[in-house]
Amino acid sequence: MERVTQLPCALWRGLAELHAALDAAVAQMGTAELHAVTMTGEMVDLFPSRAQGVRTLVALMGDRFGADRLRIFDSDGGFGSPAEALAAPLRVASANWLAAAAVVAALEPDALVIDVGSTTTDLIAVRGGRIRARGRDDAARLASGELVYAGVVRTPVMAMAEAVPFGGTKVPLIAEWFAAAGDVYRLTGQLPEGADQHPTADGGDKSVAASARRLARMIGRDAESVVPERWRELAEWLAHAQARRLHAAAERLLADEPLPPDAPVVAAGVGRFMAVELARDLGRRVIEFGALLPVAPDQRNRVTDCAPAAAVAWLAAREFNRSVRQSPPGSLGGDDMQVVEH
Q1: Which among 55, 60, 121, 259 has most CB atoms closer than 10 A?
Q2: Contact 178/201 with Cβ under 8 angstroms?
Q3: First vs last C-alpha separation in the chain
Q4: How far apart are CA 110 and CA 113, in angstroms?
Q5: Residue 124 and residue 130: Cα distance in Å, rounded?
Q6: Considering only CA atoms, which of 145, 158, 106, 176 is closest in space to residue 249?
Q7: In whole angstroms, what is the distance from residue 51 CA to residue 134 CA?
């Protein structure tokens, strides 16, 4: 696997955002003999339905790169043509989680996959080389607890808790998008460099002081009302609250799909530090997703950040008779990989 790029794409603002992101990706990496695609963008409220979102995105990618050079990853774990995706759009909607799980199932037969991204967390059990998912689409995965809408960048703080301890009392959080998880993890010092790619809630800067100002608004205060240490403590409490939510989801999954005690947690996503902490609490060792694939050392972190897209590239290379196992480190059949996250 040669290169990975991750580009912001505020798709809810219009298709021009996707065209701009694709322009940037092609400028960095060029085009390829084959383009393998997975998506979650059909969920944005730009589209009247998920099916229409899939059809729009598939048609756009086909026009852009050529339908004969495009394959779409589906919920059966394989690849279809654009025509097949257009005919059955819900089979390819939000199938990105399955790609990462399929790679793990091929390379690490017993594992708990935890992919903590900017907005959501995916938890998938792999046992005996098989994906043991209870749900296949977003609705079923939400109901099963395998999809948790909790991430480390874009999650609104008002969704992280109903009330917080502050000044010796329990204070309800204001139901306004004044601050996001990126502010919380910036204050705790855990947010990785470059993980926060979108504008902040107030359009302001991404300094610790600005994050404290935004967080203070969540409880009706100004940052100057207390010493800065109080805002860091509040951020740590919110981070622990989110960690408890993910821990409960993992415990539920493991109760339904028990894994051997030595089965590792495969950690992925820009928020994988939470997966590492969760693995420690569960008493399990950790493997970073990027360590599973033949990848240049300087790209390993990016592969782990973008696990579903990297997984789709690897699976496509394997399915379309590209030499994955014989490839030298840092290559994927000679193709570059393009990654666009919305």
Answers
A1: 121
A2: yes
A3: 22
A4: 10
A5: 11
A6: 145
A7: 22
pTM for the structure as a whole: 0.91
In this structure, what token pair is assigned to residue 143?
Answer: 């109901």
Cβ neighbors of 170 (< 8 A, separation 6 or more) are: 163, 164
Q: Are 272 and 116 in contact (CB under 8 A)?
A: yes
If residue 122 lies in a helix (H) or strand (E), which one and from where to where? strand 121-127
Helix axes 307-319, 96-107, angle to 10 degrees: 60
Helix, coil or strand: residue 47: coil
The closest alpha carbon to 21, from 310, 337, 341, belongs to 341
Closest to 289 (Cα-Cα) out of 312, 271, 309, 305: 305
CA-based nearest residue to 96, from 52, 138, 67, 33: 138
For 245-267, b where at least 16 C-beta lie within 10 A, e where not — what string?
A: bbbebbeebbeebebeeebbbbb
- Residue 114: in which H helix or E strand, if any? strand 111-116
How confident is the model over 240-260, as pLDDT tens digits?
999 999 999 999 999 999 999
Structure tokens at 94: 């939000």
Domains of the chain: 11-116+293-319 (3.30.420.40), 157-246 (3.30.420.190)
Q: Helix (H, G, I), strand (E, B), or coil: what is residue 112? A: strand
Six-digit token string for 166: 């502050």
- Residues 231 and 215: their CA atoms lie apart, in Å, by 7
- Rounded-to-integer distance, Cα 214 and Cα 182, Å: 11
- Any alpha helices (H) in 108-227, and if so which ranges? 138-144, 181-188, 208-217
Scanning the structure block, which residue is given the tokens 């852009």? 64
168 by Cβ neighbours in 10 Å (0-12 / 13-18 / 19+) ranks as exposed
What's the CA gap between 295 and 289, in Å, rounded? Answer: 11
Residue 133: CB atoms within 10 Å: 23
Helix (H, G, I), strand (E, B) or coil at 216: helix
